[in-house]
Amino acid sequence: MENVKVPYQGLEGLASLMARLRSPEGCPWDRKQTYSSLRRYIVEEAFELVEAIEAEDREGICEESGDLLLQVVFLAQLAREEESFTLEDVLEGIIEKLVVRHPHVFGDVIAETPEEVSRNWEIIKSRKRLEGAKDDSALAGVPRSLPALYRALRLQERAAKVGFDWEPGDEAVVLAKIQEEARELEEAVREGTRDQALLELGDLLFAVVNLARRLDLDPEDALQRSCGKFSRRFRRIEDSLKDEGRKMQDCPLAELDALWDQVKSQEGPGEAGTPRSS
User: Fold this and answer.
1) Which GO terms describe its biological process (predicted)?
2) CB-facing half-sphere around the CA of 186: CA atoms within 13 A
């Protein structure tokens, strides 16, 4: 394969390649795909790109960007076949959107800070969303398919923009809300009401996301760091026991707790749970 001459170049070449794969003389697998079947690949490629970014893997970022771009071109080819839109329509749409949403660059609006740009962006988005929209809620347009932490964050941001938020700087009231939700969850667990425990757990997570938003912290990043930290420490305990010819399931919990504390104390400041260290 290394010496195969590729007759397709650039974005137009990729579009032509996809059209060939979808043709009767093309690939059976590609011809079988639909909008619905591509959903899982779109999500997977997006997460693989994020993983490459977190690893600061420039080669990986390049490759995964291409994989994600392929999904967009694939969707555009499906649309072209049914004559609903084309790749050119996709490009024209995003170019127009970028120009319209950057009036401080292409117009006479003044925005000198990222915060001002973000505020103007949301105002323009809101106006566009309300044009002929059946749903005029401030929460309209937040996808249900977002990961739950990000969806909670986006909903809270939208609500805050119309004044539905605690006073700026008053994080004590948010911490109190977290404690309240934790007590309600504890009560539901104690009473053995599974459905209520599920609801209270959701409320507690939602409150924690609210605190993250007000502290300008990314809750998904925070949880990923904790996952990485847990995985790293757990594997070190496994490796330590393996060197002794033992398994975790054969050790008493007290010993495992002691090993956990030992591994925790051995970690340096550079192992605080960043994505790269996981």
Assistant:
1) dATP catabolic process; dGTP catabolic process; dTTP catabolic process; dUTP catabolic process; response to stress; TTP catabolic process; UTP catabolic process
2) 6
Q: Quick one: CA dihedral 40, 35, 59, 52, positive or negative?
A: negative
pLDDT for res 210: 97
**Helix, strand, coil in percent for the chain, rounding step 5:** 75, 0, 25
Cβ atoms of 140 and 129 within 8 Å: the answer is yes
Q: 181-197 pLDDT, tens per residue?
A: 999 999 999 998 899 99
Across 227-258, b (16+ Cβ under 10 Å) vs e yields: ebbeeebeebbeeebeeeeeeeeebeeeeeee
Residue 81, SS3 per DSSP: helix
End-to-end CA distance of the chain: 35
Instruction: DSSP letter for 139, please.
Output: T
Which residues, 6 or more positions from 166, have their beta carbon under 8 angstroms from its beta carbon?
173, 174, 214
Helix ranges, the chain (H):
10-22, 28-32, 35-54, 58-82, 87-100, 103-106, 114-130, 148-161, 171-191, 194-214, 219-243, 253-266
In one letter, which amino acid is 264? Answer: K
